[in-house]
Design brief:
alpha/beta, 11 helices, elongated, about 40% helix, 2 domains, Rossmann fold
Length: about 280
């Protein structure tokens, strides 16, 4: 659902991506972000003074992560720390934050929630966050810059590469449909072999081999896959390209998407080169 804005005197009403109405009587000056990718977006929109709190996972920008107050994690916030910061706007996300905690926060503060499944959802979120924080023009420009960059990164796609994207180890977990990563895989020119499964299914290595991906991507987050995990997969999938990939560039749905475009182009080139080598 797109953000909408209605003016009634000095009161402004915004509708978030879950359909909640958020009331503000002035541009927010004390913002807490509970989502790492959206925290980075706020700073890239120029809200250096307005952001007063973030989570322990909001690692970008590094200097802000080191110096600003942390209000817990994305799944477990510290209500007392939030209260001490006197926020006039809290920004969260349906998937990353705990519903009951968000509902409690909504009883006391304006809370704007995102719901990101597709690349288009991310563009809508960027522009909506710009509107509610008084940075509409800059947000619109950023969204268009990202759109153009992503489009340019896929211009030369001749075919989509069958791919499995793994996010967890023991149990092995993959990415399925209904996720932002699935949408980004398609954007980057890769076909998700587990698209018929929803969300984040548990799989076995036998199921992985049966799905016959040409490439298996091992994400850097939430599980930090390393080189030793590649060998385990190669035992059952010897003719598959297995690569460690930057999870932030597949899953962060804010301004980091601008960095995703050149990364996708480079990654696709590397994968195609590796596939040609395996066929020799």
């Amino acid at each position: 659902m797109k953000n909408s804005l209605l003016k009634t005197g000095n009161l402004k009403r915004f509708t978030d991506q879950l359909g909640n109405t958020v009331h503000l009587d002035a541009p927010p000056r004390r913002i807490i972000s509970l989502v790492p990718s959206q925290t980075e977006l706020l700073f890239d929109l120029g809200l250096d003074e307005e952001v007063v709190g973030l989570t322990k996972f909001c690692v970008h920008p590094k200097e802000k992560w080191r110096t600003l107050p942390r209000v817990g994690g994305t799944k477990k916030v510290d209500f007392e720390k939030i209260a001490a910061l006197h926020p006039d706007l809290i920004i969260g996300n349906k998937e990353e934050n705990d519903r009951s905690q968000i509902e409690e926060l909504q009883r006391h503060y304006p809370v704007w929630m995102s719901d990101i499944v597709t690349v288009e959802d991310a563009f809508s979120m960027i522009k909506s966050v710009g509107e509610i924080t008084g940075k509409a023009t800059k947000a619109q420009e950023l969204a268009e810059e990202i759109r153009i960059a992503l489009q340019s990164s896929v211009v030369n796609h001749q075919s989509s590469i069958p791919t499995a994207y793994l996010i967890w180890y023991r149990p092995w977990m993959a990415v399925g449909s209904g996720t932002f990563i699935d949408s980004m895989l398609a954007q980057a020119g890769f076909t998700n072999v587990f698209h018929q499964k929803t969300r984040y299914p548990e799989i076995t290595l036998e199921e992985l081999a049966a799905a016959a991906p040409q490439v298996v991507m091992l994400s850097s987050e939430p599980f930090p896959f390393k080189e030793q995990h590649i060998a385990e997969i190669k035992q059952l999938c010897p003719s598959t390209v297995v690569k460690l990939v930057d999870g932030e560039l597949f899953s962060w749905y804010g301004s980091r998407m601008l960095q995703a475009a050149p990364y996708f182009a480079s990654l696709r080139k590397e994968v195609l080169t590796a596939l040609k080598y395996l066929k020799l």
